[in-house]
């Protein structure tokens, strides 16, 4: 896993994340939820989402980080995405472990 680097202003970044245990678990409803969260974070943080793609087991987001003066509040993305990913990982692990609860088999 790549370590977090320094986020510089006035730059573009390609963000990639994959679900835990190579699970295939993002259905259309969850993709819509992820896009809605991404848009809220974009508005809160001042980061600009230039492009994105959500697939069943991973996502790509291409962002532009403007200068602090243009951005306003910062670090919203750093807080919100891990919260969503952690919540998703916990639910995925529970489905794998129990094999029930309305979850389809994902491994």
Task: Give an overview in words.
The protein has helices spanning 28-45, 68-71, 76-98, and strands at 11-18, 48-54, 58-65. It has a 3-stranded antiparallel beta sheet with strand order 1-3-2, with helices on one face. 42% of the residues lie in helices and 21% in strands. With 107 residues, the chain is α+β, with helices and mostly antiparallel strands. It is built from 3 helices and 3 strands, in the order βαββαα. The chain has a single domain (11-98), classed as Alpha-Beta Plaits (2-Layer Sandwich). A hairpin with a 3-residue loop joins strand 2 (48-54) and strand 3. 10% of the residues are buried. Helix 1 packs antiparallel against helix 3.
Short description:
This protein is an alpha+beta fold and 107 residues long. It is 42% helix and 21% strand.
Topology at a glance:
Blueprint: E1 11-18, H1 28-45, E2 48-54, E3 58-65, H2 68-71, H3 76-98
Antiparallel strand pairs: 1-3, 2-3
Main features:
alpha+beta, Alpha-Beta Plaits, three-stranded antiparallel β-sheet, disordered C terminus
Per CATH, the architecture is 2-Layer Sandwich
Give a short account of the largest sheet: 3 strands, antiparallel
How far apart are the termini? 21 Å
Q: What spatial form do the alpha-carbon principal axes imply?
A: globular
Strand content: 15-25%
Task: Supply the CATH superfamily name.
Answer: Transposase IS200-like
- Percentage of residues in helical conformation: 40-55%
Widest beta sheet: strand line-up? 1-3-2
- Give the number of helices: 3
Using only CA atoms, what is the Rg? 15 Å
In the CATH scheme, what's the topology name?
A: Alpha-Beta Plaits
């Amino acid at each position: 896993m790549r370590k977090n680097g320094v986020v510089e202003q006035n730059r573009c970044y390609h963000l990639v994340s994959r679900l835990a245990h190579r699970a295939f678990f993002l259905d259309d409803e969850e993709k819509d939820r992820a896009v809605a969260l991404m848009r809220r974070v974009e508005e809160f943080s001042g980061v600009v989402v230039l492009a994105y793609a959500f697939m069943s087991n991973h996502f790509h987001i291409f962002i532009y980080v403007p200068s602090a003066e243009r951005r306003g509040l910062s670090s919203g993305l750093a807080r919100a995405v891990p919260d969503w990913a952690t919540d998703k990982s916990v639910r995925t692990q529970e489905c794998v472990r129990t094999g029930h609860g309305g979850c389809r088999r994902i491994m």
